[in-house]
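Morning. Coffee machine broken again, so started the prediction first thing and wrote up yesterday's gels while waiting. Chain of 271 residues, entered below exactly as on the submission form.
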Amino acid sequence: MNEQFSIKGKVAVISGVCGVLGGSIARSFILAGAKIIGIGTNREKLDKTLAGFRELGGEVKGYVGNVLDMASLEVIADDVVKEWGRIDILLNIAGGNIPGATLMPDQSFFDMKIEDWNKVTDLNMNGTVYPSYVFGRVMAEQKSGSIINISSMAAMHSMTRVPGYSAAKAAVSNFTQWLAMEMAMKYGDGIRVNGIAPGFFIGDQNRAVLINPDGSLTDRSLKVIANTPMKRFGDINELNGAVQFLCSEAASFITGIILPIDGGFSTYSGV
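Came back before lunch.
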């Protein structure tokens, strides 16, 4: 590989490491030679995930923590710096939608429970802000690092049924741009903050919305495909290369962007 794109030896903190997206990116980083610090909320699931990572031959360590608990994040940050010396990369992947915050076709905004709105906005927005605050402080002290946040197509377009998730991801996009500006102006050009906006990928969180029990596409899926120029859903592994690029020296003059990885969905007007 061209060394410009290398992340070999980089220390990467990854929240949501036990999820499909976090696990996929973590595996690709291990294969690229990065050192992985995975954060998960469930010890049993975390240990199982890390065991699979270690089979790939990389340096891996895991911590049980909650992205909404600043105290637990501070403990992790201190421990990582003591053992690894630095933090080069932060991937804020913990997040996603929750069933109670997704409106059914026959429901309106006024049927949604506000507590579910609070849960999904807290998880996605503060679940990005809090780790950035804690681990970003380490980067500020060392004057280097790369933070990657996860936005969404729902932040770029008004989409039915997911009001809380859409609002939270729009906040993530705005915060990404703001933090990129703040870090560069206050701590120099060695710290970069970017985001990716995945298109439509079928996973556990959205399977019931996109796939019928008989395996056929739902009406929502048909609309997605009709508005995706590539005429397919994405494969979760298709996010890995973009994230690695943004964390590498090849992207040394890129900060504050939200990169769509969507098969053209965000560019298509429907005409």
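The first strand starts at residue 11 and ends at 15. Going to sketch it on the whiteboard this afternoon.
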